[in-house]
Amino acid sequence: MRLTGAGRVAGVMGWPVKHSRSPQLHGFWLEKYRIDGAYVPLAVTPNDLPAALRGLRRIGLAGVNLTVPHKEQAFTIADHLDPLARRIGAINTIVVRGDGSLEGSNTDAFGFIENVRQNAPGWSPTAPAVVIGAGGAARAVVVALLDAGVREVRIVNRTEARAERLAEELGATARFWGDWKRALDGAGLLVNTTTQGMAGEPALEIDLAVLPKDAVVSDIVYVPLETPLLAMARRRGNAVVDGLGMLLHQARPGFRAWFGVDPQVTPELRAHVVGGRGR
Ligand code: ATR
Asked: Does 71 participate in catalysis according to the annotation?
């Protein structure tokens, strides 16, 4: 680490924060680009979040990322929000402006679409896309897909009323849970945004029979890197995109704002973040 008294400091606020991979990720880039700066984990309770964010300016931090469970609360605290963040209703990045005010943005949508573009270059937004889940992560993915030019985004969620509400709010459509035939018919992209398939959770129960073979299948879960959904899709010949790339790409805009370099997502970075265990 190259850290002098003039170094810039950013970090990630979460509760708990010890599982966050962001310090490793930003630390790799700080080293790679030989930047005088640091990126640190900040364990902040939900109760303390308002004071902690207001304190950023006072202690001279360049900004922070927000992770679970702070994304929605931080949205209500930031002084400035870009239109994308407003549509998503949550933020994961704060930049402290020169005047001390807090600029909030959501880079999860960017991270999602950049990951698909980098790892499935053949994907085109012409066919319908299917998003499983209707929580905060789904919101960012749906907005990303609509902004990428997908005209029909179908949301499927266990609690169907939630899928319908989200679809209506964002300009997507809803499909019934379990009616995979109708949901997947003619789709060009399928994305899981639920926690199903994460280590310790059961696999997502889904029937891929009608999913076109040229559709791309993606998961935002990245532990394990190959979820049961991705394994099933790969076996039947679909292109698959794992969730780690979304984490890596969502970090780019913050790093650029705090440290002045647009960092690259490379195989070396991936290997560093998975600790050499992933593929
Ligand atoms: P996040 O912000 O990470 O998206 P969330 O808002 O809690 O988290 O949303 C979790 C998503 O996973 C929801 O779509 C949830 O479905 P419900 O709306 O029906 O709760 C989905 N999910 C969680 N557990 C699930 C399960 N066992 N089967 C299917 N979907 C599940």
From this structure: yes
Q: One digit per residue, pLDDT tens: the chain, 279 residues? A: 789 999 999 999 999 999 999 999 999 999 999 999 999 999 999 999 999 999 999 999 999 999 999 999 999 999 999 999 999 999 999 999 999 999 999 999 999 999 999 999 999 999 999 999 999 999 999 999 999 999 999 999 999 999 999 999 999 999 999 999 999 999 999 999 999 999 999 999 999 999 999 999 999 999 999 999 999 999 999 999 999 999 999 999 999 999 999 999 999 999 999 984 444
Q: Could you tell me the CATH number of the domain that includes residue 205?
A: 3.40.50.720
Same structural domain, 97 and 117: no
9 three-state secondary structure: strand
- Ligand 1 centroid–CA 172 distance in Å is 18
Give the residue numbers spanning the domain of 137.
109-245
Structure token digits, residue 40: 């640190």
Residue 236 burial class via C-beta count within 10 angstroms: exposed 0-12, middle 13-18, buried 19 and up = exposed
Q: Which atom of ligand 1 is nearest to the CA of 201?
A: 27
Size of the chain, expressed as the number of residues it contains: 279
Which of ligand 1's atoms lies nearest the C-alpha of 193? 4
Say yes or no: CB of residue 157 within 6 Å of ligand 1. yes
Distance of alpha carbon 69 from alpha carbon 65, whole angstroms: 12
